[in-house]
Design brief:
Length: 283
């Protein structure tokens, strides 16, 4: 049983797949883990697994396809803990399932953009005061090697829809957000990174897409945990990593104009008011 670190982590989508592996490993290493998912029964099983190994954990239920639920999740985190040293935005919807059918969230937004990107954006914004107060802290966005430039004339993909296009656009949006937020938090003691953990991991998402897995969830968890806790990367921010090596994302990620456009749209869609971080306010 590891000695408690006194640190708290929230991992979205941690009742299954790579998120579950990351959650249990952090618990074994002495972190207090806030387990998130939609299914309470599965969530409580993960909590029990962590506690049985001598760790500390709580389950917080939320459907990230609803911005109201995202807000409730943030409120639950604030009520549950006074510190949050780690946020891992891991939950996501793959490109599979109803491949040719455009789906929408509870708020009427294209589903993959809503769950894979917008929910994480909103959650980070709502938890930012807590994360900054807990510095040194880290935010890790689990993105993908699959990326496609955002069409700002049709972000919701009402024309020429495909599940693959929707997935790749949402994953690139995560990287634009990562670079933008990292710059905003410079000097705050909070790093923000994004990664493609491993290719076609053996997860429900990959299997539903009809692809044969070629990587293990353990390999993906190793990559996520390196960005989450390794002292080797403690001062590195605004990076995109493929596995455990720094990589180059789609060119749009490095377009400051595109990042500003996405940021403005994201605040508009979530109904949040832009706020300056404590670090930005101090500059």
């Amino acid at each position: 049983m590891a000695k408690p670190t006194g640190k708290t982590a929230l991992i979205t989508g941690s009742t299954d797949g790579v998120g579950r592996v990351v959650a249990t490993r952090l618990g074994q290493d002495g972190w207090r883990v806030l387990v998130h998912g939609r299914d309470r029964e599965r969530g409580e099983r993960v909590v029990s697994e962590i506690k049985n190994a001598g760790g500390a954990a709580e389950f917080l239920a939320a459907d990230l396809a609803s911005l109201a639920d995202v807000r409730r999740l943030a409120e639950a985190v604030h009520k549950t803990t006074e510190r949050l040293e780690l946020l891992i935005n891991n939950a996501g919807v793959g490109s599979g399932g109803q491949q040719g059918v455009r789906q929408t969230s509870a708020d009427g937004y294209e589903l993959r953009f809503a769950v894979n990107y917008l929910a994480g954006f909103m959650l980070a914004q709502l938890l930012l005061p807590l994360i900054e107060k807990s510095a040194p802290a880290r935010i890790v966005n689990v993105s993908s090697l699959g990326q496609q430039a955002i069409d700002f004339d049709d972000v919701m993909l009402t024309r020429g829809y495909s599940g693959s296009r929707a997935y790749c656009q949402s994953k690139l949006a995560q990287i634009l957000f990562t670079i933008d937020l990292a710059a905003e938090l410079r000097g705050a003691g909070v790093t923000v990174t994004a990664l493609h953990p491993a290719t076609y991991m053996n997860t429900t998402m990959v299997r539903l897409s009809g692809v044969t897995p070629i990587s293990s969830v353990e390999e993906g968890a190793d990559a996520i945990l390196k960005l989450a806790v390794s002292p080797q990367v403690e001062e590195q921010s605004g990076r995109y990593v493929n596995g455990q090596r720094e990589a180059r994302a789609d060119a749009q990620a490095y377009d400051a104009g595109a990042r500003r456009q996405l940021k403005a749209l994201s605040f508009e869609l979530t109904g949040l008011a832009p706020k300056r971080s404590a670090a930005a306010a101090g500059r």
